[in-house]
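The methods section describes the discrete structure representation at length, but only in general terms. The central task, working out the structure tokens from the amino acid sequence alone, is never made concrete. Nothing conveys this as quickly as seeing an actual entry. For illustration, here is how one protein appears when written out as sequence plus structure tokens:
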Amino acid sequence: MEQQLLIYNTLSRQKELFRPLTEGRVGMYVCGPTVYGDGHLGHARPAITFDVVYRYLQHLGYKVRYVRNITDVGHLEHDADEGEDKIAKKARLEQLEPMEVAQYYTNRYHAAMERLNVLPPSIEPHASGHIMEQIALVQSILDAGLAYVSNGSVYFDVRKYQENTHKYGQLSGRVIDEMLATTRELDGQDEKRFPGDFALWKKASPEHIMRWPSPWSDGFPGWHAECTAMGAKYLGSPFDIHGGGMDLVFPHHESEIAQCVASTGHAPCRYWMHNNMITINGQKMGKSLGNFITLEQFFTGDHPKLDQAYSPMTIRFFILQAHYRGTVDFSNEALQAAEKAYDRLMDGWHRLQTLKAADKSTITLDDYAARCTEAMDDDLNTPMVIATLFDACRVINQANDGAIALSQADIDALRQLMHTFAFEVLGLRDNASGDAAGVDLTPYQKAVDLLLEVRRNAKAAKDWATSDLIRDRLAEAGFDVKDTKDGVEWRVK
């Protein structure tokens, strides 16, 4: 299939024409969450970004195998080789089994993703379920002479790898001399030949709960090993796209490249894609910084930094309004603006359903679908797609107001446009046909329509008190009622 999709490749630092390794098929691996706490807005951004990549590739006709992992072991507190395993620490503090912690937060992550209308991946492997593959990876790197055993732990020999390949730092732009100057002294550094070396396998201390037998010690894999091992297992090596947040470029993805080159002689993938950060007051949102707001808190409004609750579709729209490689700074004002914009888009969709076709259009409809495709092909420019959909909504509103006339063919084209790009590609959901939690509102439709019929009769009888009471009570229940020249419109707030 001949496509003109351009993707910004972090490795080459430029947009490249996307060409999969196997025609018609795409293998995509995206780093998923470390499940030791509730997902926050920073977790929503990569999930939504790569959900749109997944959706658009399928829209283009590709058969996509999308792998997104669950990190449930090996991710130490400081994203290096220091401190406790994040999940083991949570388990110790809450007096739970580590896998109990991992399962609980995995379930909550899935529930949040469903509310955000993020499609589940094709495969969702867990790090703890692929220990043997990670041990085999570590052994292959040892066999290549690019790792060493120290006190039961195994470390990647960064300087020797660089001497052999000259590839370390190619993704992040870091060089070894700079790393040496900026790497602080960490616990256990005396085991390493070079402070920049990273753990492939860590010997478990006596109190460490999560441990597995290996040729070197009872221990656990390093954080970076899981993605290299699982990506190769489910997608082959190399595969097409590896994605994740920009904060993973170093050390995680840089280390993945080194592991793969050391064990196979080539990089793990052809295209590296990274979304930018969600920030609060210009600082990255993250659990380690303590400045995060969980998705559940956004949905309920239960956080001191929130002025109100925000629906999952408002969150999704807020994220898609910015290009995935640009930063997004949280503020209540920005979210409220996103909420109003999303509502306007859905209002246009609702009006489109009741438009009466004319025998002939009084305007020539723009080719909005081509504009949306052109925007998506240009490194998934979702803000431009949204702008184009609003241009289409202006035409819908003009037709609804009687300022212009549209033929049935034009109305059908607009419906197809909205269905394809608003709902199928961008993954938005119409809250009037299902609420933010995915609850079907169809059973309430008749009840609301009945109340509005009573209100209509009250207005006809000039019983304004009853008319206003019904409107106000519906508003309190979360339904926005609007009187127009053609009758009454309602939607879920």
Summary: DSSP finds 16 helices and 15 strands in the chain. Residues 332-354 form the longest helix (23 residues). The first strand starts at residue 6 and ends at 9.
